[in-house]
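To: structure desk
From: M.T.
Subject: fold request, one chain
Message: Could you run this one when you get a chance? Sequence is below, nothing fancy, just the single chain.
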Amino acid sequence: MVLQGGETGLRYCQAATTAKQSREARVIPLFNKASGMPTFHFHVHNGEFNPDDEGVDLPDLDAARQEAVRAAGEMINDSKRSFWEHMTPWIMNVTDDRNRLLFTLQFAAKVPSGEALYIPRERETKNPPAEASG
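Reply: Done. Structure tokens follow.
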């Protein structure tokens, strides 16, 4: 599935985060020489695999996350009833130009087979009542 065209030639580097942030390494995109932005690919599996070979140039990882959520909503809306009828989870894997996985979205519809009641968990109170002294 192609969301919009993009240029290739994106380079990435990997940097270690500080102890305050995370002990895991994170991928930091360097800029695409042609557009000045990194290219992100949104590969979707919704019963069939739809690779995004062209990708989308976006300013940063936060913009890619926003685009993934927006695109997922649009795909669900465009699918009409098939999303609700198939009950198969859809998966969107977002990668960089080197095919490194940056994050994954998974979304699914679940419809009860019979009558079901929604019973929310009781909310915990922030300040429980003081015990009566006596």
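Reply (cont.): The beta strands are 12-16, 25-29, 39-45, 49-50, 56-57, 90-95, 101-107. Let me know if you need anything else for the meeting.
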